[in-house]
Write a structure and sequence with these properties.
ParA/MinD_ATPase; AAA_dom; alpha/beta; globular; ATP binding; 8-stranded mixed beta sheet
Amino acid sequence: MDQAQSLRELAAGQNRKLSEGKTDSARIITVCSGKGGVGKSNFTLNFALTLKSLGKKVLLFDADIGMANLDVLMGVSPKYNLYHLLGREAPIEEIIQLGPDHLPFIAGGSGMEELFSLSDRDLDYFSSQISDIADEMDYILFDTGAGLSKETMKFIVSADECFVVTTPEPTAITDAYALMKVVHNSHPQVEFRLIVNQASDIREANATSDKIRMAAKRFLQMDINYLGYISSDVHVVQAVKKQVPFSMAYPQSAASKDVHRLAMKYLSSDRSYASSSTEGIKGFISRWLRRK
């Protein structure tokens, strides 16, 4: 199956959805971290692939301005990125690339910066182009930059929920808590799910989670949902060197099993939210980029 055929199937699914009058919208997830080096992008990629392996339709969006690297982790070289869409140089069908296991993804590149200075006309064009494909999805994952920039804040407060990835390192814990604190103080409606990456064992993972959740409960009166942890695993490093997602290169590794467990837990707990996103991608884009 080549890329063109896969994208034709996506478009056919969208047309079928419209003809049947379905209104379910994709759930939009922003994935972020308090600091770099915690494995956020690697988690996002493998989580998306695992959701896809469980029968979900997933679109992956590399939203890391200036430091986009999902294509490197997948070992692919996208011909087009967001810049070409905004410049009317290529339609959405060509902008969307297919990664491992035919996972649809959009490479951000320099086009991410252009998004924040679009005219209303260009913004409408961008919204309609993305909606042509995105409305067919169950989940859309935005992999944002590390830390809390102005752009990342817009992603977080516009999405349906935010995954925060940390490690047991003290600096990572502190920065993850600080990110959630800043967001919560200005936008208390944001829902967070915490993931502890590179944990030596379940005790270290739980201790890391407890530190953040207890501080949030005590000082912010905020409950943080702990999704789970991913073990520190040498196979992850080996997969990065091979430029193959570890969940595909080493499906029986501890990290792969952990991501599968997290995905299963998420899908189980997400049932109550399945129809909560009624505005879909157009509503997200409106909240994200509209200057008002």
